[in-house]
Design goal:
about 160 residues; mainly alpha
Length: about 160
């Protein structure tokens, strides 16, 4: 079982790699449009659509990477005031339970959105919005995976 988690963990780290690449590409596309607009007086018309897609993918995959690294937002005000044993359970409920519920909602509504996205395309490049919105359920599945792995590892140790 541990070998499977090790292999899947390597694969699931792609969220961080892809999010980082999307942010870097976002920077390059934005800078190239700035240069084209102000140096050559000829802005690139397609950059807004690419920037939108890159930003959505970077945000959602970045969120799943933060869940894996346990760097997501966590308000520890209540946990700091509780005894250690209760603080542990409070942390589990909020850092795993709330994320699981949120990811399940993202997965459900993200897949509902995909059925509408297949029929719309971006105006300039004609990229189906499906390829933009599929980041939501993909990120949700990865978040659920990270939470389940965290729960399994905590209960097996």
């Amino acid at each position: 079982m541990q070998r499977i988690f090790t292999w899947l963990d390597r694969f699931m780290r792609l969220d961080e790699v892809i999010a980082t690449a999307a942010i870097f590409a976002l920077f390059l596309v934005a800078i190239s449009n700035i240069f084209m607009r102000y140096l050559f007086n000829s802005p690139l018309a397609w950059t807004e659509e690419i920037l939108q897609m890159l930003l959505v993918w970077a945000a959602f995959l970045g969120a799943s990477a933060l869940v894996r690294r346990r760097e997501h937002v966590f308000i520890s005000f209540v946990t700091d005031k509780l005894p250690p044993r209760l603080a542990h359970w409070n942390e589990q409920i909020f850092s795993v339970g709330i994320i699981l519920v949120s990811a399940a909602v993202m997965l459900y509504w993200g897949t509902q959105l995909l059925s509408f996205s297949a029929y719309r395309s971006t105006p300039m490049l004609q990229i189906p919005y499906y390829w933009i919105h599929v980041a939501i359920p993909v990120s949700a599945v990865i978040m659920i995976y990270h939470c389940v792995v965290r729960l399994v590892r905590q209960h097996s140790s």
